[in-house]
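Bit of a strange request maybe. I'm writing a small parser for structure token strings and I need a real example to test against, not something I typed by hand. Could someone generate the tokens for this chain?
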Amino acid sequence: MRILFCHDGPLRKDEFNNYYGTAHNDDTFKRYYNIANDLAVATRVSKIINSEAKVTLSKITVSPFDVIECPNLSNFKGLFVDRLKAKKIIYSEVEKSDYIVVRLPSVLGFIAIDAAIKNNKPYLIEVVACPWDAFWNHSLKGKFVAPFMYYSTKKRVGNAKYSIYVTNNFLQNRYPTSGKSVNCSNVSLTEFSDDILARRIEKIKNINDNSKIVIGTTAAVDVKYKGQQYVIQALGKLKQQGITHFEYQLIGGGNQDYLKSVAKKHDVVDQVIFLGSLPHRKVFEWLDKIDLYAQPSRQEGLPRALIEAMSRGLPAFGANTAGIPELLDKNYIFSNTSRNIKEICLMLENIDIELMIDQSKRNFFESKSYKKELIEDRRIDFFNSFKNKY
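Reply from user aminoacidic:
Good idea to test on real output. This should exercise your parser:
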């Protein structure tokens, strides 16, 4: 039996034809072997030019694993020039498969769903993000694409018989389905030692009036809807008030020029530190060193980085975006509007040791809802229901 997984991706490929992922890894793909023995993945693929990039990527080692390389449909050229080529590839692969799993939003996913319906093949949808938020907040071109992606996703999820959502409520409300559904985050944590919380509380207790408070965010630094610029602007406002003991550390790849220009404009260059990309295991070491975590995104599903930060007992604040309010205390959610700079400033001004300890405990225990065994058991039960139906 063969299962076909479809998503815009991308995967990365080295000179030895090994595949690597960022959002996709062995844990992602292993779960689909619960449905069928053979796994094929239809996605776009880009080459790894610099071998050092492999350090921050996850090598795909599952087997059998067949990659069907598709054109990039995530730009205007792809949508209007390469779509027919992609359609031919996807329709051919759907015909050869017994089950189809589609991750949305993705244009390749839309094509795969239409092909599955035409060929009477059972399909399951994973809803992992909001395309309206992603494209509307991306660029001027994105605003033209946003309505198409929104309605295409809404229509297909609405008609699906089986859907998995990564959020508890947000994506379900925006893209409801008439079929069966379950909430299963793509985040699955394994370490919840009480020692983690104890060390965090001890670290917070050692903060004094002369301490530097380090805020951190993990996200690409060249994608404006990730929102790091709002935290930087808030640091600038606080500096005007004589408050300069905050430092903002950024983990993530991409061109740093825009965020550096924001830091320069607001006179906080010395308070904004770019650390580049880190291997996943190193991210956890970094999380243990910082004091606050910020998730200022204007587009999300359920942010893995925030949940991982919470699992290290980090106090956190974030935007009123997608699944973020499902994770954090409502008092640490700022609006997704032009007022957010003032709101971020107030949160940082009012933070104290007692509040930090309270939020540390709260976030640590909340993150336990994302224990790997709990989520995977729920996912496998849903997969079995899907498989047994057909």
